[in-house]
Specification:
The structure is a single chain. This protein is an alpha/beta fold. The chain has two domains: 196 residues, 3-Layer(aba) Sandwich (Rossmann fold), CATH 3.40.50.300; 92 residues, Helicase, Ruva Protein, domain 3. The chain has 13 helices and eleven strands. A five-stranded parallel sheet has the order 2-5-8-1-9. The longest helix is centred in the C-terminal third of the chain and has 17 residues. The radius of gyration is 21 Å and the shape is globular.
């Protein structure tokens, strides 16, 4: 079994590889990797052309995972995602043909472009790592990770993700525009004729990723940290601008991500700063705000950031922790 410190070392190696092709985005890349380590699914919400697809492919390559991409469109059917039975003329029987969801890392590209019925086809897979078709349950490969992309500025021909599906994503990450120096480096790489583009080398395997996930069970979370998470989530429910606050699933998401964050830092215990670094990504997309706040462009992320400044932070001295 891996120690949390070993998981941190291997995780940094994965990030270093992905940064070979995605320049200057260590912070959002770290968040995405935390989601994968914590055994969850990640929603990447940002503008077109910022490398969301490249990021998904790069993580699949660095972690040695099988990769499939689904381009979600208005005419996509649930069976196109999960698979469907077909008639085998040789045997005269109905045989299940697995869909693209039977992979280890699934890129659900522009998930908000498909109707709710097809979006819902992913719910069972994301929540239970299985697909049920015609009353028969089919287990998905392990590990199974969904990286979904969402374009936040286009509303024509899109279908907003329902709250139940948003809640299935462990975190929401945003990429953002690159810094001018990083964008210049990117242009220089593409301007050099005859120079092969940078590549990502595998530095882990599916079995190693499962071991890295298991190592997070050894990361201690003190009672004061657990209390801090509970107070933070409870504050989202009591906030006057929030109609529906984060559920207990949100509390667990913060805890899982905070433990992964601690391991990435080489620690076997969680501190308050771990919680603060992941809280916005873990909770912002789970809040349902008052309708008029949409016009004022106030987001769930801003509400959580505001609460991080007001909810008292504990001073944690872990029992048996090491630095």
């Amino acid at each position: 079994m891996l120690a949390p410190s070993e998981t941190g070392t291997r995780s940094q190696a994965v990030l270093d590889q992905v940064e070979q092709v995605v320049k200057g985005k260590r912070e959002p890349l770290t968040l995405i990797l935390l989601g994968i380590l914590a055994g969850g699914h990640v929603l990447i919400e940002d503008l077109p052309g910022l490398g969301k697809t490249l990021i998904a492919r790069s993580f699949a390559r660095a972690l040695g995972l099988g990769f499939t991409r689904i381009q979600f469109t208005p005419d996509l059917l649930p069976g196109d995602v999960t698979g469907a039975p077909f008639y085998d003329q040789r045997t005269g029987e109905l045989v299940f043909r697995p869909g693209p969801v039977f992979t280890q890392l699934l890129l659900a590209d522009e998930i908000n472009r498909t109707p709710p019925k097809t979006q819902a086809a992913l719910l069972e897979a994301m929540a239970e790592n299985q697909v049920t078709v015609d009353g028969i349950t089919h287990l998905l490969p392990q590990p199974f990770v969904v990286l979904a992309t969402d374009n936040p500025i286009e509303y024509e021909g899109t279908y907003p993700l329902p709250e139940a599906q948003l809640d299935r994503f462990l975190l929401r990450a945003r990429i953002g525009y690159p810094e001018p120096a990083d964008e210049r480096t990117l242009m220089q790489l593409h301007a050099q004729l005859g120079t092969p583009p940078p590549t990502v080398d595998p530095v882990a395997s599916p079995g190693e990723l499962l071991a890295m996930r298991a190592s997070l069970d050894a990361v201690e979370a003190d009672d004061d940290v657990l209390g801090y998470i509970v107070r933070l989530v409870a504050a989202t429910r009591a906030h006057p601008k929030v109609t529906v606050g984060a559920s207990p699933r949100g509390s667990l998401a913060v805890l899982r991500l905070a433990r992964a964050h601690a391991a990435l830092a080489g620690r076997d215990f969680v501190i308050a700063e771990d919680v603060k670094d992941v809280a916005v990504a873990a909770l912002g997309h789970r809040l349902l705000l008052e309708p008029e706040l949409w016009v004022r462009r106030i987001t769930g992320d801003q509400i959580v950031a505001e609460l991080l400044d007001t909810v008292p932070t504990p001073s944690v001295v872990p029992r048996g922790g090491t630095t």
